[in-house]
Amino acid sequence: MINLTPAADKAIKRFLRGAENPVAGLRIFVSGGGCAGLQYGLRLEQDKSDDDYEFDLGGATLLVDPMSRPMLEGLTVDFVDSLTQTGFKFSNPNATGGCACGQSFSA
In what order do the strands lie in the sheet with 76-81? Predict the structure, then answer.
């Protein structure tokens, strides 16, 4: 299960409502990269794949591919909007390490 803070829930719903074209949901995925080896990705998806896991979190539909799902189990997503930082922050119980910037992790 993926958990959203109230701030992340509000931001995701805002992005989904503001999309130019209809979307199936927000995809959260893990890909190789970043200084710790793995990084998070987010993108609006127009179509859901047949093998996607779909999480309906009170009107915000999250899509996760089968390869990313084990690494995202228990993930908490927050959204920060401050003078020094704006964007999503991830707290992942599966991460065994991370980089100083907090944008990538190792598992």
Answer: 3-4, 76-81, 86-91
